[in-house]
Amino acid sequence: MITAARLGKRYGDKVAVDDLSFEVRPGTVTGFLGPNGAGKSTTMRLMLDLDRGTGETRFDGRRFETIRHPMREIGAVLEAKAFHPTRTARNHLRMLAAGSGIPATRVDEVLEFVGIAEVARRKPKGFSLGMAQRLGLAQALLGDPATLILDEPANGLDPHGIHWLRDVLRALAAEGRTIFVSSHLLSEMSLMADELVVVGRGRMIYNGGVDGFVRSFTQSTVLVRTPSVSMLVDALRAVPGISVSAEGADGVRVSGASSATVGDVAFAAGVRVHELSTTTASLETAFMTATGAAEEYVAQAPAGGGE
Ligand SMILES: Nc1ncnc2c1ncn2[C@@H]1O[C@H](COP(=O)(O)OP(=O)(O)OP(=O)(O)O)[C@@H](O)[C@H]1O
Asked: From the CB of 130, is ligand 1 less than 6 Å away?
């Protein structure tokens, strides 16, 4: 369990992280989302005592600085390409293993596990971003830690790599580990994460389950197909709070009511229904709504768009 309490960080006048508190529970993948510049990397650095700020983070009740062999308890990758410039990938890991009392045999095990055993005798300098990400994950897993903190681990991975990462993180969580992972890939996050911490301009926007996030920041709608569109529209318009719009020749899109309510209204009005389905918005839509006002860097619309 990670407990982050009142984390804060300023750069001059700029508040990068503003009083953030959250918990990351074992057995779950917790996604850390936020627009560019929202304070995700700074928060992760604060959690690992790599930056000075306010507040404190505890890992199973203990502060990072009091943990004797951090690699054996907390695996972290904050920068994809932070490796020794002249050592081979394998030697880089062997050196880290030796420093933390981890047997050298574990190095080949993790290199195999992340799928880069073939290039282990090359220098990471020449690695693609995807290969570097895999080496980073190998490094994080070296000490078989119960906690993983990963900043944008999917960045640079191809679709197969992303799929693989998702399976790996879910499997590691299923073993009871605590996994905190930031990402910009929202569709991936919706498949990978159970819980979310969403920040904007350093502040907490949402902390809770993925489904709850989508429900809180989007509105699901109900689609009805019926041969009696006008009868149904009249019946629905009589109900306060419901709004309707046409969807093709035989469809009605309904906002502000559950499918059960819509079905009951149709039944009471004697309207035959051929389809009744709920459309839930995506995590991406929820993210855009939740963080729209908290975006740090907003691109200008291209000039001469010819609207
Ligand atoms: N060393 C620094 N000096 C000054 N400002 C900084 C420094 N590092 C970060 N910041 C500022 O703090 C804020 C948070 O940055 P941070 O890198 O933590 O955001 P992020 O959510 O990780 O962004 P991204 O998704 O783009 O990686 C930003 O406004 C950034 O410009």
From this structure: no
Encode pLDDT of 187-239 as tens digits: 778 888 999 999 999 999 999 998 888 888 888 899 999 999 999 999 999 99
- Rounded to an integer, what distance in angstroms lies between the CA atom of residue 166 and that of residue 15? 32
Q: What pTM does this model have?
A: 0.83
- Give the domain extent around 249: 220-279
Q: Which long-range contacts (CB under 8 A, 24 or more apart) does 211-215 make?
A: 213/283, 213/286, 213/290, 214/280, 214/281, 214/282, 214/283, 214/285, 214/286
Amino acid of residue 271:
V
Residue 79 Cα to ligand 1 middle (Å) = 14
Nearest CA to ligand 1 atom 12: 16
ipTM (interface pTM): 0.96
Residue 40: per-residue pLDDT: 94
| Residues 231-264: tens digit of each pLDDT | 999 999 999 999 999 999 999 999 999 999 999 9
Q: 161 lies in a domain?
A: yes
- Looking at 3-67, list the stretches that DSSP marks H as alpha helix, in order from N- to C-terminal side: 40-47
C-beta 182 within 6 A of ligand 1: no
Q: How many domains does the chain have?
A: 2
Q: Tell me which residue has its CA closest to atom 25 in ligand 1.
A: 36
Mark whether 179 and 257 lie in a shared domain. Answer: no
41 ligand 1 Cβ < 6 A: yes
Q: Are residues 246 and 202 in the same domain?
A: no
Which ligand 1 atom is the nearest neighbour of the CA of 9? 12
Distance CA 189, CA 174 (A): 16
Give yes or no for residue 9 CB within 6 A of ligand 1.
no
CATH number of the domain within which 248 lies? 3.30.70.100
Nearest CA to ligand 1 atom 31: 37
